[in-house]
Amino acid sequence: MIELPQSIQDCVESFSKLPGVGGKTALRQVMAMSKWQVQDLLDFSNAINELQTLNKCSECGVLSDSDICKICSNEFRKDSSVICVVENISDLMAIEKSNNFSGLFHILGGVLNPLAGIGPSHLRIDKLIERVKKLDTKSIILAINPSVEGDATCAYIKQLLGEHINVERIGFGIPIGGSLELLDPMTISKALENRKILE
Length: 199
Hints:
- By secondary structure, this protein is α/β, with parallel strands linked by helices.
- The protein is built from eight helices and six strands, in the order αααββαβαβαβαβα.
- It has two domains: 6-53, Orthogonal Bundle (Helicase, Ruva Protein, domain 3), CATH 1.10.8.420; 69-193, Dna Topoisomerase Vi A Subunit, Chain: A, domain 2.
- The strands form two sheets. It has a four-stranded parallel β-sheet.
- The radius of gyration is 22 Å and the shape is globular.
């Protein structure tokens, strides 16, 4: 079998670190890039290098070019007095893409998982409590994925916030176009729990 140049092998190894990218896919991508013009390769390299300079918003935790992101610096969104709590940046982006929420966000950075050694100090829960007090937040929406760990995290946050703040959790259940026979028992259970009266 032909031995590829070390530079190709190094690139393939780097690409293979990406989630969902195996050796074959990585090799295919690198071989395609080997046909690029020099300037395109330089631009790609510079774009990746710039990832080193990324900041996280000191308020919500989203990746940002500045210390405070555009969402947190938006006065209209601050005035809404609602914070939507999510596990990670991908969840924030999904909710933002829906164009159905106009408040602030807070990224926890995961969920409580004692078996994996993740306790409250590993998440941004203290920062959430601090923000709630500072912004005089009236309502919290917990957009945490349904799981044992997610449920425990929601219960813990609710306990910390106390009774004076309205705490809600987003509904989970059957997706649009979903078929009951194809769904798992947990999804059906959550759908039954989150049923509502028809108006």
